[in-house]
Amino acid sequence: MKKILAIGAILMIIISFSACEKDDICVDGDTPLLVVGFYDINDTATVKRVTKLRVAGIDQEFTVNTVPDRTDLDLVELPLRINSPTTSFVFISNSASNSSNEETGNADVVTFNYETKEVFVSRACGFIANYASLNGTLTSDTDNWIKEIEVVQTTINDQATAHVKIFH
Predict the structure, then answer these.
(1) SS3 call for 152
(2) CB-based burial of residue 17 (10 Å sphere; 0-12 exposed, 13-18 middle, 19+ buried)?
(3) Among 104, 89, 95, residue whose Cα is nearest residue 34
(4) Is 0.85 surpassed by the pTM of this model?
(5) pLDDT of residue 83
(6) pLDDT of residue 122
(7) Biggest CA pair distance of the chain
């Protein structure tokens, strides 16, 4: 009887350890960012930096933390809202502040519309969001520095290449 109990206990230990998974460490489970490249309106194949670029989310009290503030950039990575089918950003060229701490750069508003698709990655990572049916619109004003927006990839599931081209 003792041998049967010992064998049963050993069997239970083996079964319980065989049900274990690897450590719950997530290495490939991040929601991709929207990649926006800036190009020359006169030569649409040429990358063109935006001088002292500042990017802020509409309805946010701060600039986007994935973009270095007031830096000359030709590519930015932007987070889209997961719980909303639209995200708007203010792109400010030649950003600076006057003595009253007011923005003096040229600000243009771009709105991105999309569908959010949840994707299960793993038990450790859980769900991430991918985006589909992406389109972008520019709010017209009297002094737009952004001349045109072209959506290159309507599906966002990685950050390998630019999804959107902004021409200026």
Answers:
(1) coil
(2) exposed
(3) 89
(4) no
(5) 93
(6) 85
(7) 91
pLDDT tens track for 20-78: 555 567 877 789 999 999 999 999 999 999 999 999 999 877 889 999 999 999 999 99
Closest by CA position to 132, among listed 150, 117, 112, 149: 117
Q: Which residues contact 33 (CB under 8 A, 6 or more apart)?
A: 66, 77, 78, 79, 80, 159
Residues sharing a CB contact under 8 Å with residue 89, sequence separation 6 or more, in sequence order: 55, 56, 57, 58, 64, 78, 109, 110, 111, 112
Secondary structure element (H or E) that encloses residue 14, with its range: helix 2-18
CB 166 within 8 A of CB 110: yes
Reduced 3-state DSSP string for 77-131: EECCCCCCCEEEEEEEECCCECCCCCECCEEEEEEEEEEEEEEEEECCCEEEEEE
Beta-strand relationship, 34-39 and 164-167: parallel
* Residue written as token pair 């670029």: 53
* The 86-93 sheet, strands edge to edge: 71-73, 50-57, 86-93, 106-122, 126-138
